[in-house]
Structures are given as structure tokens and as C-alpha cells.
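WARN retry 2 of 3 for item q-0093 after timeout on previous attempt; input resubmitted unchanged.
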Amino acid sequence: MTGSAAGRFTTVARESSGGPVVEVTGELDYDTAPRVRVALEDALAVAPVPPILVVDLAGVTFCDSSGLNALLQARIDAQGQGSVLRLARPTPACVLYT
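OK item q-0093 returned
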């Protein structure tokens, strides 16, 4: 990914009636996966821990194995804290085909 593409990547945390939502926009890859991890860790670092954390993937244009690994690790971390990670509105870029 080029530096300009990295500039178009964002994570925005917001509250909803069901709990925190982290909106991810842009290319989720090796360069940006750490930013997703931090955003999700921050969303879980509150007391009390939210029962559900939603990751809105509607704005993701590309996702490689690093991005998928960041989401998987966030799921494991959430589960360890008694929370559930839910993926919302995944784009075709986030779907694995077999």
C-alpha cells in the first residue's frame, strides 16, 4: 500500500444504544491493522466492559490476512474479557471465498 492510501484509512469509535461501535474505513492491511487493534482495545478498555462490541466494516475496501488476524485477535481479547465481538456490514473485501 502507498503512503497516500494509508492516509485514507480511519477508525471512528461511537456509542450506540447497543454499546460501542468502531467504524473502519479504507484498506485494512499490514500497515493499518495495528490501528484497528488499538481502536478495538480502547473500546474494550472501559469499566464495565461492554457486553457487545460492534465493528462496522461497511467502509473497508480491501482486507488482507493481517486485517483478518487483527479482527480475530480482537475477538479472542473480547471473549477473554466477557464481551462479544460482532462484525457488521462486511464488504466483499472482508469475505473469504472457499
